[in-house]
Amino acid sequence: MINGTDLLELINYRQSDRAYLNTPIEKEKLERVLEAGRLAPSACNAQPWKFIVVDKQELKNKIADCTSSKVLGMNHFTKQAPVHLVIVEERANFTSNAGSVIKNKQFPLIDIGIAAEHICLQAAAEELGTCMIGWFDEPKVKKLLNIPKSKRVPLIITMGYPAKETREKHRKSTDKIISYNSY
Amino acid sequence: MINGTDLLELINYRQSDRAYLNTPIEKEKLERVLEAGRLAPSACNAQPWKFIVVDKQELKNKIADCTSSKVLGMNHFTKQAPVHLVIVEERANFTSNAGSVIKNKQFPLIDIGIAAEHICLQAAAEELGTCMIGWFDEPKVKKLLNIPKSKRVPLIITMGYPAKETREKHRKSTDKIISYNSY
Hints:
By secondary structure, chain A is an alpha+beta fold. The first copy, chain A, is built from 6 helices and 5 strands.
């Protein structure tokens, strides 16, 4: 099995890719990416998610339009990505919901972060680029994909072969995020 | 770099380990695990987290007591783990907060799910076991670690060498979590 050094190299390589090549994603790669999402852990194994793969070009471009803003000049790259993965938040099971209520936490959102990152790391291992998008016209996305109005859509992940010349590493700060035995 | 098959094998191997050996964690392994957490992506790169490593045995056992319930008979394994990682939710930056408010989402919780899973996957690659705990006496944990009352503590991760004979794989259902181009 892979060792720690190998995984850390992949984790270090992953970034949010905001430019994509006009190259389709192989079916077997996409299936392994979805399998990685499926295998994500969740509170009380509730799996409070549904993944919608949007790969029909016309529909995908409509979803891309929901993620970009003419006013703010944001996210115009999303149309380049051949596939969008739309993550729908589903109702958790009884024990997870009880924990959320009693402990005043929202476990499904944490769970969806976990699953989304399984997807992005697996994509990176498949030489695919991804970008998680949290800012989009949610009502319009729900209408386009026939998602019930009562559901929430926390994230859309764009996916495709990255335009490598545009890869710029986000450097992380080291300061003060780690401490030992006390805040 | 590692390929998709290798990573999927690791993802498939990872589980929530609820029994640990009485073996300390090597410093360099723990450091790579923390580095994996540090490199996690977050909305607008806000990094809304702080990781507290609890490795002093007496203090760690007190934290373990906060995660187990005599009444419900829950989580008595936590005391076996030599290290607990306590994840504190920190204030996000302006753009992430604006997105959370305008789009009615809580990006920091998604971010913390992402970082927590970087930690658990890296631990798995280091042959360490982990279990994310969401149910614990949060006020008591904050008091023990001098965490300000205003902060939230979404997760505690137990970490140690797993007692392998107890490893039981949670099987995931495949049903209906993936669809194409429509809900």
